[in-house]
What we know:
It holds the Pfam family TNP-like_RNaseH_N. This protein is of the alpha+beta class. The protein has helices at 32-35, 39-60, 63-66, 69-79, 82-92, 102-114, 116-122, 131-138, 149-159; strands at 2-5, 13-16, 146-147, 169-177, 183-185, 190-192, 194-195, 198-199, 202-210, 216-224.
Amino acid sequence: MSIFSVEPGFIVTEATQTELPSTSSASVQSEKHLSGKSPRKQKLRKIIRMQRHKLSKLLCNPESSSSKLPRFLGMYDEYLSPQSSTVIKFHAQVRSTARYPTEYRQFALNLYFLGPKVNRYIEKLLHLPNSRTFRRWTQHWNVAEGISDFMFMTIDLKCREYNETARQCVLCMDEMALKANLFYILKRDEIVEFAKSQPAKSMMVLFAKGILENWKQPVAHVFVHTTCNGT
Protein backbone atom coordinates (compact mmCIF):
# COMPACT_ATOMS: atom_id res chain seq x y z
CA MET A 1 0.00 0.00 0.00
CA SER A 2 1.43 3.51 -0.98
CA ILE A 3 1.04 6.69 1.07
CA PHE A 4 1.62 10.11 -0.49
CA SER A 5 2.27 13.28 1.61
CA VAL A 6 2.62 16.84 0.15
CA GLU A 7 3.96 19.67 2.26
CA PRO A 8 5.22 23.16 1.29
CA GLY A 9 8.90 23.15 0.48
CA PHE A 10 9.17 19.41 0.52
CA ILE A 11 9.46 16.88 -2.21
CA VAL A 12 6.71 14.37 -2.65
CA THR A 13 7.79 11.19 -1.05
CA GLU A 14 6.33 7.63 -1.24
CA ALA A 15 6.25 5.42 1.80
CA THR A 16 5.48 1.75 1.41
CA GLN A 17 3.97 -0.27 4.24
CA THR A 18 5.23 -3.83 4.47
CA GLU A 19 2.43 -6.41 4.58
CA LEU A 20 2.70 -9.02 7.37
CA PRO A 21 2.60 -12.67 6.38
CA SER A 22 -0.73 -14.49 6.80
CA THR A 23 -1.04 -16.59 9.92
CA SER A 24 -3.56 -18.99 8.40
CA SER A 25 -2.26 -22.51 7.58
CA ALA A 26 -3.74 -25.38 5.57
CA SER A 27 -2.84 -29.09 5.84
CA VAL A 28 -2.54 -31.07 2.65
CA GLN A 29 -3.23 -34.88 2.60
CA SER A 30 -0.60 -37.00 0.93
CA GLU A 31 -1.57 -38.48 -2.37
CA LYS A 32 -2.22 -42.22 -2.66
CA HIS A 33 0.82 -42.92 -4.81
CA LEU A 34 3.02 -41.46 -2.06
CA SER A 35 1.53 -43.34 0.96
CA GLY A 36 0.43 -46.54 -0.79
CA LYS A 37 3.81 -48.23 -0.33
CA SER A 38 4.33 -47.47 3.33
CA PRO A 39 5.68 -50.35 5.49
CA ARG A 40 2.43 -50.66 7.42
CA LYS A 41 0.28 -51.01 4.31
CA GLN A 42 2.70 -53.44 2.70
CA LYS A 43 2.52 -55.63 5.81
CA LEU A 44 -1.29 -55.60 5.75
CA ARG A 45 -1.33 -56.55 2.07
CA LYS A 46 0.97 -59.48 2.80
CA ILE A 47 -1.37 -60.74 5.55
CA ILE A 48 -4.36 -60.48 3.21
CA ARG A 49 -2.55 -62.48 0.50
CA MET A 50 -1.67 -65.21 3.01
CA GLN A 51 -5.25 -65.48 4.28
CA ARG A 52 -6.64 -65.63 0.74
CA HIS A 53 -4.18 -68.40 -0.08
CA LYS A 54 -5.26 -70.43 2.96
CA LEU A 55 -8.92 -69.93 2.08
CA SER A 56 -8.41 -71.09 -1.49
CA LYS A 57 -6.64 -74.25 -0.27
CA LEU A 58 -9.51 -75.07 2.09
CA LEU A 59 -12.09 -74.52 -0.64
CA CYS A 60 -10.21 -76.71 -3.08
CA ASN A 61 -9.62 -79.54 -0.56
CA PRO A 62 -12.33 -79.59 2.15
CA GLU A 63 -11.40 -83.13 3.19
CA SER A 64 -8.05 -81.98 4.56
CA SER A 65 -9.62 -80.40 7.65
CA SER A 66 -12.19 -83.15 8.24
CA SER A 67 -9.69 -86.00 7.87
CA LYS A 68 -8.33 -85.30 11.36
CA LEU A 69 -11.75 -85.69 13.01
CA PRO A 70 -11.80 -89.54 13.18
CA ARG A 71 -8.38 -89.55 14.83
CA PHE A 72 -9.54 -87.17 17.56
CA LEU A 73 -12.74 -89.14 18.07
CA GLY A 74 -10.66 -92.26 18.61
CA MET A 75 -8.65 -90.45 21.28
CA TYR A 76 -11.90 -89.64 23.11
CA ASP A 77 -12.74 -93.34 23.35
CA GLU A 78 -9.30 -94.08 24.74
CA TYR A 79 -9.00 -91.41 27.42
CA LEU A 80 -12.60 -90.54 28.39
CA SER A 81 -15.54 -92.41 29.84
CA PRO A 82 -18.18 -93.76 27.44
CA GLN A 83 -20.72 -91.12 28.51
CA SER A 84 -18.28 -88.22 28.04
CA SER A 85 -17.07 -89.63 24.73
CA THR A 86 -20.65 -89.87 23.44
CA VAL A 87 -21.36 -86.23 24.33
CA ILE A 88 -18.17 -84.93 22.70
CA LYS A 89 -18.67 -87.03 19.57
CA PHE A 90 -22.17 -85.69 19.16
CA HIS A 91 -20.99 -82.09 19.48
CA ALA A 92 -18.15 -82.68 17.02
CA GLN A 93 -20.55 -83.98 14.38
CA VAL A 94 -23.67 -82.02 15.31
CA ARG A 95 -25.75 -80.33 12.64
CA SER A 96 -28.79 -78.13 12.94
CA THR A 97 -31.06 -80.99 11.80
CA ALA A 98 -29.16 -83.83 13.47
CA ARG A 99 -31.05 -86.59 15.26
CA TYR A 100 -30.11 -87.20 18.85
CA PRO A 101 -28.62 -90.66 19.50
CA THR A 102 -30.08 -92.83 22.24
CA GLU A 103 -27.15 -92.33 24.63
CA TYR A 104 -27.33 -88.57 24.24
CA ARG A 105 -31.08 -88.62 24.84
CA GLN A 106 -30.56 -90.44 28.13
CA PHE A 107 -27.89 -87.93 29.13
CA ALA A 108 -30.14 -84.96 28.27
CA LEU A 109 -33.16 -86.46 30.06
CA ASN A 110 -31.10 -87.02 33.22
CA LEU A 111 -30.12 -83.35 33.22
CA TYR A 112 -33.70 -82.31 32.51
CA PHE A 113 -35.10 -84.23 35.48
CA LEU A 114 -32.39 -82.99 37.85
CA GLY A 115 -34.11 -79.63 37.85
CA PRO A 116 -34.67 -76.52 35.73
CA LYS A 117 -31.69 -74.64 37.18
CA VAL A 118 -29.26 -77.42 36.28
CA ASN A 119 -30.71 -77.72 32.80
CA ARG A 120 -30.53 -73.95 32.15
CA TYR A 121 -26.90 -73.84 33.29
CA ILE A 122 -25.74 -76.83 31.22
CA GLU A 123 -27.57 -75.76 28.08
CA LYS A 124 -25.24 -72.73 27.91
CA LEU A 125 -22.29 -75.11 27.55
CA LEU A 126 -23.79 -77.99 25.55
CA HIS A 127 -26.17 -78.35 22.64
CA LEU A 128 -29.19 -79.61 24.59
CA PRO A 129 -32.75 -80.11 23.30
CA ASN A 130 -35.36 -77.54 24.25
CA SER A 131 -38.26 -78.19 26.61
CA ARG A 132 -40.63 -78.91 23.73
CA THR A 133 -38.39 -81.74 22.55
CA PHE A 134 -38.30 -83.21 26.05
CA ARG A 135 -42.10 -83.19 26.22
CA ARG A 136 -42.31 -84.90 22.85
CA TRP A 137 -39.97 -87.65 24.05
CA THR A 138 -41.90 -88.27 27.27
CA GLN A 139 -45.49 -87.86 26.10
CA HIS A 140 -45.70 -91.53 25.10
CA TRP A 141 -44.69 -92.82 28.52
CA ASN A 142 -47.66 -94.65 29.98
CA VAL A 143 -47.48 -94.51 33.78
CA ALA A 144 -50.67 -96.20 34.95
CA GLU A 145 -52.19 -95.86 38.39
CA GLY A 146 -50.99 -98.34 40.98
CA ILE A 147 -47.77 -100.36 40.83
CA SER A 148 -46.34 -99.86 37.36
CA ASP A 149 -43.83 -102.08 35.58
CA PHE A 150 -42.53 -98.99 33.85
CA MET A 151 -41.43 -97.55 37.20
CA PHE A 152 -39.54 -100.73 38.09
CA MET A 153 -37.77 -100.57 34.74
CA THR A 154 -36.81 -97.00 35.59
CA ILE A 155 -35.43 -98.09 38.97
CA ASP A 156 -33.44 -100.83 37.27
CA LEU A 157 -31.84 -98.33 34.89
CA LYS A 158 -31.13 -95.89 37.72
CA CYS A 159 -29.52 -98.51 39.97
CA ARG A 160 -27.15 -99.65 37.24
CA GLU A 161 -25.18 -96.44 37.79
CA TYR A 162 -24.91 -96.97 41.56
CA ASN A 163 -22.71 -99.25 43.61
CA GLU A 164 -23.94 -101.57 46.35
CA THR A 165 -23.72 -98.86 49.00
CA ALA A 166 -25.69 -96.31 46.97
CA ARG A 167 -28.43 -98.84 46.21
CA GLN A 168 -29.49 -99.13 49.84
CA CYS A 169 -32.89 -97.46 50.16
CA VAL A 170 -36.12 -97.32 52.15
CA LEU A 171 -39.71 -97.38 50.93
CA CYS A 172 -41.62 -94.20 51.79
CA MET A 173 -45.12 -92.87 51.24
CA ASP A 174 -46.27 -89.29 50.89
CA GLU A 175 -49.49 -87.47 50.07
CA MET A 176 -49.99 -84.66 47.59
CA ALA A 177 -53.09 -82.46 47.40
CA LEU A 178 -54.85 -82.12 44.03
CA LYS A 179 -57.54 -79.91 42.60
CA ALA A 180 -60.77 -81.81 42.05
CA ASN A 181 -60.56 -81.96 38.27
CA LEU A 182 -60.87 -84.68 35.65
CA PHE A 183 -58.56 -85.01 32.65
CA TYR A 184 -59.34 -86.82 29.44
CA ILE A 185 -56.36 -88.32 27.59
CA LEU A 186 -57.39 -88.42 23.96
CA LYS A 187 -54.64 -90.76 22.78
CA ARG A 188 -55.53 -93.45 25.31
CA ASP A 189 -59.27 -92.63 25.48
CA GLU A 190 -59.04 -92.51 29.25
CA ILE A 191 -60.27 -90.22 32.02
CA VAL A 192 -57.83 -89.85 34.92
CA GLU A 193 -58.09 -88.59 38.50
CA PHE A 194 -61.07 -90.77 39.37
CA ALA A 195 -61.21 -92.27 42.87
CA LYS A 196 -64.13 -94.70 43.28
CA SER A 197 -66.33 -92.83 40.78
CA GLN A 198 -65.56 -89.48 42.43
CA PRO A 199 -63.02 -86.79 41.54
CA ALA A 200 -59.78 -87.29 43.44
CA LYS A 201 -58.70 -84.64 45.92
CA SER A 202 -55.28 -86.08 46.77
CA MET A 203 -52.78 -88.67 45.59
CA MET A 204 -50.70 -91.17 47.55
CA VAL A 205 -47.20 -91.70 46.19
CA LEU A 206 -45.00 -94.67 47.05
CA PHE A 207 -41.31 -94.06 46.36
CA ALA A 208 -37.88 -95.43 47.12
CA LYS A 209 -35.38 -93.07 48.79
CA GLY A 210 -31.65 -93.67 49.13
CA ILE A 211 -30.18 -94.05 52.60
CA LEU A 212 -26.54 -93.17 52.02
CA GLU A 213 -27.01 -91.39 48.69
CA ASN A 214 -29.44 -88.58 47.90
CA TRP A 215 -31.75 -90.06 45.29
CA LYS A 216 -35.50 -90.68 45.07
CA GLN A 217 -37.60 -92.65 42.60
CA PRO A 218 -41.42 -93.03 42.57
CA VAL A 219 -42.70 -96.61 42.46
CA ALA A 220 -46.50 -96.27 42.45
CA HIS A 221 -49.27 -93.72 42.86
CA VAL A 222 -52.96 -93.98 43.77
CA PHE A 223 -55.72 -91.35 43.54
CA VAL A 224 -57.88 -90.99 46.66
CA HIS A 225 -61.00 -88.96 47.33
CA THR A 226 -60.21 -88.05 50.94
CA THR A 227 -57.02 -87.25 52.77
CA CYS A 228 -55.27 -89.95 54.75
CA ASN A 229 -54.82 -89.80 58.49
CA GLY A 230 -51.17 -89.58 59.46
CA THR A 231 -51.69 -91.86 62.43
